[in-house]
Amino acid sequence: MNRIGAKMVYNTPSIISFFFIINNVILIESSSASSFFNLQQNELRAVNQAAGIPLPSQAQILGSLQHPFTIFEHYSICTYTGCQWDLDRSPATTFSPPDSGPYTNQWMQVYKELGATQVCLTVRHVDGFSLWPSKSTNYSVESSHWRNGTGDVVRDFVASARAAGLSPCLYIILGFNVEANHSGMPGPQYLDNQVLALTELLTSYGQIDR
Length: 210
Prior knowledge:
The protein is of the alpha/beta class. Helix content is about 30%, strand content about 15%.
């Protein structure tokens, strides 16, 4: 089986990881995706049901199969600090790409050469730093020096994906109470805050496929 690894590309500082996503399962073996899905579908459903996890609909499964090769772009403050998870919350000013970057058009060129049809950007990970200027937090690109606080990585990424004919996907982690402005926030207010973030992402950038 052909294994797809991770590497630096062009002059982009981001680390790019390549995965196959089938029915919410991350695979790293290019030739195993179809057989894994066929052989393990019932087992995965049984595990999900036992854990009380909602099951994907048939339409969602078929939609996933339309993009058997999805590339995840995990780009964050950690790109500039060398960390894996920035649980210590580096200052927003640590996010410091050049104003001409990040080079999302170059990313798409590499993704297409690798044969991907869908690209997924991690717009917020466990550190809570948001790659778009969100009203749900004061810990985002808006608080960085990048483009004088007017930049929007999500907008650049989605625009480059569409221009390259790739399906845009956004990945966000919700529920990690790591942001200073969430400390002590009542449950309903915290949920409203997360809904605000999701609403921004799903209404500000056109059709998001996943």
